[in-house]
Amino acid sequence: MLKAGGHTVIIFPCGNKGSFLDRMMNLIEDAWRPTADGQKVLAFEMSDGHVRRMTSQETIGVFKHQGVDIVSEYYSGHLFGTLDWLCGGTGPASINKVFAGKPKGAWAKLRLNRTRRAMLATHTLIQKQSLDVAKKRNPFRQSAVHALRWLAGLVDRLLVQLSAKELKQLLAEPVAPERSFGHSHPAKPAL
Known about the structure:
By secondary structure, the protein is mainly alpha-helical. It has one domain. The protein is built from six helices and two strands; from the N terminus they run αββααααα. A two-stranded antiparallel ribbon has the order 1-2. A hairpin with a 5-residue loop joins β1 and β2 (40-42). Mean pLDDT is 79; it is low at 175-191.
């Protein structure tokens, strides 16, 4: 559908090894599920309508097979972007859904539960930014509300800043896509 000389931007969930979700899903039995067309998708995403989660190399291969030249590739959200998305953007239902599978042993269960609880606590804290400071309270509670709102805002800004810094760093450092936790890998320009 792309005209000769045209450009397109494709954005979809990353299936690269080493990303936050890849690390967590490696602790869960049957986390990767096959789709009808033989691809793979994370079990918690199947109800969301994701068709697949491809690695960078698989994606590049699909485009090259169709004769499309890759001008540039960018990867983000491998750690802080995912944490910002889950803790600041989605909420408890999505966080719990990510960690709902059966752990691969006691250590995996401990790690998954600890990470899930930390993310739920972070989400809960971020939501405290909306506390009503105009509401009448005793002076001690009023001070506590101001402090909690300040801390919630700080945590929210920190996640957003770390996510932005991660993206900036990934865009600046060319690395082989399959070997890195987070990366950017500019491809050869189209001829």
